[in-house]
SCO family protein (Nocardiopsis gilva YIM 90087), 206 residues
Amino acid sequence: MRITMPLAGGLALLAALTACSGPGSQPGDDSPYTGTEIDGAFTLPSITFTDNKGEDYDLKADSEGVTTAVFFGFTNCPDICPTTMADMAQAVDKLDADQRERFKVVFVTADPDRDDPKLLDMWLSSFNPDFTGLTGSIDDTDKAASDLGISVERPEDREGDYQVGHGSQTLVFSPEGESELMWNYGTEPDAIADDLKLLLKEDDAQ
């Protein structure tokens, strides 16, 4: 049984994990998971983006029915984003076919000025062609990030090769859109895969 985290506590925890750097995961003493259990802290918001195939994607409605990992980043990120997507791809490869069918990775760009669907599709395909990339307006992106306790900071002057600060955590949501786990940056693919196998088994039993 995972412990429900009050919303205020969840916000305080996740707001502390910002920018393109972060510590490795810190498992709880009595938890079966490597990731931090955050049951009930967040709910996927119903905000419509454009996915990497150019189609509308409602973050809540189109994630229903499968366990979904959500990460905010940008394709020009020098370290956290490509490392996290590579780790997620390796973890997914460790799942069997049925488990992969019941799990989805969603990458929401925090840099929609530069990350259009075509670029997202090309970038994500280098990790796993089944990963979903989302881009939208600045307002919708920031609303979704705020609803999920993810920090995003952009420079006022977004000309040239600028960087975007963003939370480095990956959040995992149940098939009903409720938060379940959080992985800090640096969580190893084997640990992610083990968490997923246990989580998918538990979600299937509910």
